[in-house]
Design brief:
The structure holds 2 protein chains of 2 kinds. Chain A is α+β, with helices and mostly antiparallel strands. In chain A, 62% of the residues lie in helices and 13% in strands. Chain A is built from 12 helices and 10 strands. In chain A, strand 4 and strand 5 form a beta hairpin. The longest helix of chain A has 79 residues. Chain B is α/β, with parallel strands linked by helices. Chain B has a single domain, classed as Transcription Regulator spoIIAA (2-Layer Sandwich). Chain B has a 5-stranded mixed beta sheet. The radius of gyration of chain B is 12 Å and the shape is globular. Classes of the chains: A alpha+beta, B alpha/beta. Chains A and B meet through loops of A and helix 1, helix 2 and helix 3 of B.
Amino acid sequence: MLLRRRLLLLFVAIIAAVLALGISMVVTVRERDDAQQRERRLSVAMERAAQLSTAYAEQETGERGYVLGERSDSFLEPYENGRATARRLVRQLRPVLDTAALRAQLDRVTSAVTTWREQAAAPEIARARGGDSEGAAELVATGNGKALFDKVRTAQATLTQRLQAEERRAARRLDDVRSRLTAVFAAIVLVAVLGAVLAGWLIRRWVTRPIDELADEVRRVRGGAIDSPIQIAGPPELTSLALDIDAMRGYIRQQLVESERSRQAVEQSAAVVLTLRSELEPVVSDIPDGWTTAGRLRAAEGVVAGDCYDLFATGRGEIGLVVVDIAGHGATEGILALRCKEMLRMALTSATSPGQALETTAGILGDMGDEVFLTAFVAAIDTRDGTVRYANAGHPAAYIVGDDSVVALEPTGPLVGLLVPGWETAEATMAPGENLCAYTDGLIETRNGDKEFFGPDRLVELLQGARCAEAPAVVKRCIDEVELFSPDGLRDDATIVVLCRAE
Amino acid sequence: MADLELESRESDDGALVVVRGEVDVATAPELRDALFALVDGGASRISLDCRGLDFLDSSGIGVLIAVRKRLGDDGSLTLEAPPAHVRKVLELTGVSEHVTITS
């Protein structure tokens, strides 16, 4: 489900719960107020009922006093006033009696009073007022008045009882409502807390965590892992965002690849590159008499070569020969090849053995990078006796070719770049008339349309029996044939160097 | 144009990649990407079935070296039944000391 819909449902649920509890609280408060009011009303009613009781008692006392004793008008006062007071109190009491039963009971009280007045009090007073004291006393003696007034008292007692009962009931109700109100409050607090916790947990699950995950993925790519895809688990909006960001990553990667290609293309056409190309082909000089040299470096189509070679006089009666093949090509590789070649040349010139020269160079280059490695053939040839001291770092074997002999100068150690040190220096000899040929794998691994390799055999064939004066021609022939082998252009740089000892 | 076909099968901590065709400067990146993805995905033992490998030049060697370095000391790189000329190049360059070659 969409994240926005989930959040909407969550908030609707919370609001609904709050509303429900709010309404419940309002209703309960209203009930409590009603209960409180009722209790107060009944309290007032009880007071008034008590006052009414007193008023009736005064009337009765007054009336009896007048009839039985002195027919003094002062005794009649309480009778008359009590009546007025009672009437007032009844008027005040009736509205606060809120049940029909209570009101009916009050009616019974008032009607009992009326009956007493009419049937007992009034006739007795009339006789007494008329001067008939004996007649009045007779009436009193019948006990009618007393009986009737007892009925009034009974009715009043009942009213009081009922009022008390109602008051107790009202008090209980008030307590109940108060408890309920407390419960509602507690529920509101609980719902609020639970709601907050639930909302927090859900938001963390639906929003915060996926976003953190996405942020981690993006940071990882930013840290350099441009090739690894970005994806997360989460609600649809965020997973789709992750997909979009991943598409962006793909685009950036594409741009990087293309920009790298453009940069290389630019490099190829820069003037610097042309200089570099020419630097990789050495100017061979100072070669002692009796020795002929020839060499060619043919770069793969449209690039700066990763091959480099040099032939030079070490200054101690030796000729130095260095062939370096860096994996790949391009300006970076070309420069590295040049550096290696120069380092090896310097080492050989300062009388270091070929094996040692390789170690020193490898040490200086250190760890060149994950996929950078080179192979090299390094030799120092003594021009006086033709001794060849050489070291071969994973490079295709160089050959010493005579009229009917071929000696292969195989690797004396691994390629340079594996961080494994140690190249042995081996020895061989060049007899007069023999050729020493070093080359790179781009030469012999060229294949023609029939998938045939140019191969070392063909190379040896071309060299066998060649005179020293023919060295440059042989080199040219090799390169020409290699070019014929690959009409679509060379795939790899091809280098060939030939050194010939005069007869 | 050279062609390269790769088929990977992953297991618990390793992977077997069947390599068919040629690995040269044009196709080496494809091999590199595939092997790097396996190593980054957690494979520590990688085997290459090289029976169908017709050609491997210095760019291929570079990929093998890079993969070997990326695997680290706990990992291993095995080449199964490489053709003779490929085996020769591996021995020549000394790379055969750092990978396992089986027949």
